[in-house]
Amino acid sequence: MKNAVGREIPDALLTDGREVYQGKQYMDGKYIQKASPRTRRCEKPVDSKVVASLVDALKQCGAKDGMTFSFHHHLRDGDYVVNQVMAAAIEELGLCDLTIAATSLGSAHDPIADYIEQGKVIGIQTSGIRGRMGEVVSAGKLKTPAIIRSHGGRPRAIEAGEVHIDIAFVAAPTSDCMGNCRGIGGKSNCGSLGYAMMDAKYADHVVVVTDCLVDFPNMPASVEAIDVDAVVVVDSIGNPKKIASAAARISQNPRDLMMAENVAKVIASTPYFKDGFSFQTGVGGPSLAANLFLEQYMDERNIKMGWAIGGICGPLVELLKKGKVGKVMDVQDFDLDGVNSINQTPGHYEMSASQYANPANKGAFVNSLDFVVLAALEIDTGFNVNVLTGSDGVLRGAPGGHPDTAAGSKCCIIVTPLTRGRMATVCEHVVTVTTPGDCVDVLVTDYGIAVNPLRPDLIACLDEAGIPHVSIESLKEKAYALVGRPDDLEWEDQVVAILEARDGTILDVVRKIKPVTL
Amino acid sequence: MEILKPAMAGTLESSDAQVTVEPGTQGIQLTLSSSVMNQYGRQIRATILETLERLEVKNANVTVVDKGALDCTLKARVECAVFRSADCSQQNIPWGGVIV
Amino acid sequence: MIPRPRPERFRLRRTMMFMNAQKPGLIKDAYIYGCDSIMLDLEDAVAENQKDAARFSLYHALKTIDYGDTEVIVRINGLDTPHWQEDIRVCVAGGADGIRIAKCESAKDVHTVEEAVLAAEREFGVEEGRTLLMAALESPKGILNAYEICSASERMFGVAISGGDFRKCMQTTPQPDGIDMLAARGQMLLAARAAGIQCFDTVFTDLDDQAGFEAEVLQNKTMGFDGKSLINPKQIRFVHQVFAPTEKELIQAEKIVRVVRENAAKGLGVFTVDGKMIDIAFLPGAERTLRLGKACGMYKGDLV
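Above: the input entities. Below: the structure tokens describing the complete assembly.
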């Protein structure tokens, strides 16, 4: 069945009330029955929940074949915990048919690809998938299609019981012996633990994995001891060098700077750019650089940013410290400046993934967002964005908060170069739709700006400010004139991943790619 | 042109291609790898073969490692490698002749 | 293939950005940053053993890429190298707008290049005289011979100083106040103005020293340069800002052009505008200001 972004969704997937994507806000006003976990009562006082090993923790939580384990990605590419837990479960306990439900996965998790090939891991639910895991899933080696959700879609699915977590593993830079966890302190400092919060509340069992045990009580705790079954102390939960970069530097790439300047110009031309406005930006080159130019416009107009959300890094912390932004709500930190600021700088707070982006709760932060500036791997003439699959059809990206912020914000700006190497970023049809075009408002490229025709109000703003803009079709034609029109990818029938819209409907599917023969 | 000795042109930088030509006896033997194989592999192959044909190269082992080069770059790299293999890449290039 | 219009000898050239002709990723779209001219470099940026490869790249770039209104100039290798003749052939065959003569020291150097350019125009069936020339002065001798160089050919549109080599010859280094090159810049400007061609300042290479760069650009403007060579697109904006006319200058220029034209029709030679004595000699300057204003998006009228 064809959905609202023109993608053919196999009927076989439309079971158990599952629908195809119908357009944004389709689920508004509907009711959900929240799921609840089945948890063990711990009435008898204990001195400590620390157990000797991951194997002991798994046994204590009744780990068995077919279970779903959850993980979060605050340790980013430095994470050791997913691999450690899965090795303990599969190699030491001999478990199989396991599903990994992670907030995101990256190239740090390459070893999991082996478990997929061996058939020990049969399900993957995640926002991001990259590296070898992306390759084996794309090659059709995972027994069930991977389910790709946004950062807001995941807490929604957990609440709705679509994901049932048997054991949640919290990678905690510090924990006390009872399981009060913080992302701050220790040797693997990561700042916010926002993505782990929902998992801890909705999982049947919760295991804290830490490499720094601190005195009880570890306060203020991001994950609370009342939800924790066991604490395991390991040598190291991650590689600090890869957890947080020293400082996210503003790009010096002239192309990025040029695009960033135009992003700021567009923002400043809209009526939402007024004292107290709210803002989120990615950490990609041009998105981050937009902060710099935005600050100039803020100074010029003598206005301040009310609040900012998202993954947080240095340039935003800098604005907070200068008093140019009122509050920063932080679901994850990208660099040491962010890590060192959360709960230290007045106005810098931690928030959960649900608070951040869940479309089914009663008002996530994204719903109050004025502007979001986002990157794209591809964007098509319907303004649909792909941030998941490479131009070769292989999984190597992450929707993250992209679809959530795009849908919630009043003005969603995509910033991307027109081409990358020989790839046309602006194209006729994206490989995979990860953010539907009805949520995207403006495209800024190095070859020009295009506004979604669904937003005549924004077109008028740009005209008023004398900002030149063109049609997205003309940008696509320019891209193809430069790099040539690409051949269509060839697919097999097998669906290797389901791309779920944030509301739980099916936005797109990724099929197994046919190897090209010349 | 005849491929007299092995020669190479281009780099492995993004947007470039590295082309190696070696003497051969069995027509054009092309080994192509590309970072954009799925969407541009056929076009890249066609550009390389057309360029070799234009230069009247009949026999050669040709290896191209493409890093997302545009057609104009592919042509330039193939031509340079061929002219280098004949030791005549430095002067009196037939611009606008077989080089178009 | 992209046909390029016949190059204009005197056009706006506030910014000329250097680009290594051997780097495909750079040359494919250097024009998007909005510099007035791009300078594809076959000389210092290209290693000695890649000169041949750079020419093949350059030829196809010139033939394939639509540079739009951006002028395309090529810096060729010095006349003391084995490369310059083939460099000229490829520039002319590819249809470059102009050639920058490196290390130019005399009118004879210009004539040598001019002859090779003419020969190439004939060889490749390019309109004779189409290919423009500019000279880079890189030595004290070049500076002392500036006037004969500037007036050596009808193809010459401008002259530029190349600071790196020049300072080495003079046993000096870049100074914040520009004293190191003050005499040379002055001499070159005098020569260029006397010969009626344009004059461009050297590159500023320390990308981390924005304040130093801005000071130099401001000095360039007050000394009377037409523009500046650049090494990075991020330098473009400031130069364009500095070289843009002020609102007041535009209003004044518009008045002058209007009044001069009206009075010329009536046969009057001298008259006053806002209390100032004005004659026909003010016209070219005023027109230049309006053209500059137009390029900067500040003047929307139709006088130029």
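Note for the figure: The CA atoms of residues 256 and 363 of chain A lie 33 Å apart.
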